[in-house]
Write a structure and sequence with these properties.
The structure is a single chain. The protein is α/β, with parallel strands linked by helices. It has a single domain, classed as TIM Barrel (Alpha-Beta Barrel), CATH 3.20.20. About 40% of the residues lie in helices and about 15% in strands. Strands 1-2-3-4-5 form a five-stranded parallel sheet. Strand 2, helix 6 and strand 3 form a beta-alpha-beta unit. The longest helix has 21 residues.
Length: about 220
């Protein structure tokens, strides 16, 4: 809300100091993660659309129009995510999915991860990154060179937006390309996003979903 609405989205009579707002906000996430851990969860995934939108120059310009430099915005996101995850138990894995839009086969943003990569892989205290790479809109794998040695990179190579079926050979080639930047043992394969981010879902059938998931299991076994 702060990223999209700016300082005016936070009542200054309640929070004259924006840092107090950030502390309260991220405290809600820390409490939720603690509750999940107490219930036995060892895995939490955060969905981050704003970092993905910043890959697109038009959203960078929109940020500047609000008086918020996009470079500052991505660093602030890293700070807030890290504040939210800082007290997680040692046995809990936290991942983050970057989503540039996924509704009824549509998308909001395009652009490679170059603009956010250095901050993304160094300022965000998470263990794994789910990155959408199902079309040329996502750019090359070169930004992965900024990934930390212990980070897992989950390649969203299989699209959920359309009926398109990827060949095993193509997916293996793409994984091999990514392995030039990230060790193979630190790579994983996934769909680029969920099959239904909204109730309407995407224009693919149940059988298409099943086949895509089967492919996501088969290709890593072959690799």
């Amino acid at each position: 809300m702060y990223v999209r609405g700016g300082r005016s989205a936070v009542d200054e009579t309640v929070y004259p100091d924006i840092e107090e707002y950030f502390e309260d906000l991220t405290g809600i996430y820390r409490d939720e993660i603690a509750d999940l851990a107490a219930a036995g969860s060892t895995y939490v995934q955060i969905d981050n659309t704003d970092a993905a939108l910043l890959c697109d120059p038009k959203f960078q310009d929109a940020s500047r129009d609000k008086g918020f430099e996009p470079e500052e915005q991505i660093r602030l996101q890293g700070k807030l995510i890290s504040m939210a995850t800082r007290d997680r138990p040692d046995n809990m894995t936290v991942s983050m999915h970057l989503c540039p839009g996924n509704s009824a086969g549509a998308w909001l943003a395009e652009g490679g991860y170059d603009f956010v990569a250095e901050s993304l892989f160094n300022d965000f205290d998470v263990d794994a990154f789910f990155l959408e790479y199902d079309t040329e809109r996502a750019g090359s794998f070169a930004p992965l060179r900024f990934a930390m040695p212990d980070s897992f990179i989950v390649l969203g190579l299989v699209t959920t937006k359309t009926l398109k079926h990827h060949s095993k050979d193509m997916l293996k080639r793409r994984i091999e390309e990514a392995a030039h930047y990230v060790p193979l043992e630190n790579l994983a394969l996934s769909p680029q996003c969920g099959f239904a981010s909204v109730a309407k879902g995407n224009p693919i059938s149940f059988d298409d979903q099943r086949r895509k998931l089967e492919l996501i299991l088969e290709v890593p076994n072959d690799v």
